[in-house]
Design goal:
Blueprint (H helix, E strand, L loop, with lengths): L17 H8 L26 E14 L4 E8 L9 H14 L2 H5 L3 E5 L2 H5 L11 E5 L10 H14 L2 E5 L16 E5 L5 H14 L3 E5 L4 H9 L4 E2 L8 E9 L2 H12 L4 H9 L2 H11 L13 H23 L7 H21 L2 H13 L2 H5 L3 H6 L5 H9 L2 H15 L2 H11 L3 H16 L4
InterPro entries: dGMP_Pdiesterase_EAL/HD-GYP, EAL_dom, EAL_sf, HDOD, RNase_Y/CdgJ
Protein name: EAL and modified HD-GYP domain-containing signal transduction protein
Pfam families: EAL, HDOD
Length: about 450
Amino acid sequence: MRGSLSGAWGIFYNGPDSLACREVASVDGSGMPSNPPTLTPQSPASTAPGAGPSGAMIARQAIVNGQHSVIGYELFNRSRAGVAHTAATDVFLVFTALSHAGTEELVGKKLIFVNCTHESLAGGHLELVDPDKVVLEIPPLGHSAAAEVSTRLPILQALRERGFHLAFNHTVLESAYAPWLPLADYIKLDLSLLAPDQLAVLIKYAGRHTKAELIAEKVESAQQYDMASSMGVQLFQGFWFSRPAVVEARLLTPSQSSILQLINLVRQQASTDEIEEVLKKDAGLAFNLMRLINSSGFGLAREITSFRQAVMLMGLKKLFRWAALLLTASRIGGIPASVGHTAVVRGRLMELLALETLSQDDADQAFVVGIFSMLDVMLSMPIESAIGLLHVPEPVADALLRREGVLGELLRLAEACESSDDALFDQAATTLHLTSQQINWAHLQALAWADQLTD
């Protein structure tokens, strides 16, 4: 009865970067895909067997002011050595930094500087990001493409109007880029490329024609710092202050089949109930959605405690963007399907039992406790650290960490059902005022419900 969580959904797949970039780009004015490709079944062997942990390596380098206080960090993707900087790697970096890794762990309350390609700027993934603390580093177009300056201008203006900060390198001070200059919040001056006399001319010109703050980058000595500071530069970045420090973020990757099923439902404008069903059946999807929507990067003022709330708040447009990004960031491989299956069964069992005596809101939280109760196994870290990655309500945390409260008793009961521990089963059932008939019925229903994914 215990089927694999991966199911039979799949797609003809040309690597982890290809599909999501096409999906993100091919949207109409409503944000939903226009004439999207059909996602068709293929052999389960070509999809990930289930949610699984992997490590995302992100390097950060401090940007400091004249008092050597950190004002922000530039982030670099170090997960794919030897892979060129592309729109897909931009997607992976932003997605990881602002949802998986958590902005608090990487940069605290500081600004995030992220290198972008023009292709990624035109994609829709930035719609998922709270722009308040994000600085997008805009690359020059090169002399051969300078004619595109005006063409790219509306995209940059729209990003600025949304609240993103924009940073450019010193080429934005050239006449060809005059339309971009008023949009600059920061201008980076590369000391490895600019001679002192060139630097002085650029700083003087910037002082007369822009209000942007200047950042001297690749500062590698006290002499370079003193020179730039004496010319009026107030922000600095380079090895003399700090070398990039690598931070590993533990990721929980859903099965690609679940992501593709979610994308199909969103494309069909399915109901909230149908979408919630898919989320409930994959612990990786559930973890990533709750992590994103409760992160400071998403910008919500209140805590979200159920998948239904999350789906309704995101809406189909953002949910589609998120699913496409998740597919880009996903990895082949994972934990045994039985682990994810157990988590899903626990969640459904606890939800059904909670509905016997508690409110719908409590039942929603019971499901969250059950499906997240094996995060320590899924992420290969202590449960305390795993729960620390999420903003969960206190009753949920108490249940997961200490088996306290009614949710904790429900979790004990779910564990007893798995282990055939009669003493623990009887104790928990008595505490919860549940009969063995109620529990056995709910357990069978939960097992059948979880197995529906592979029907």
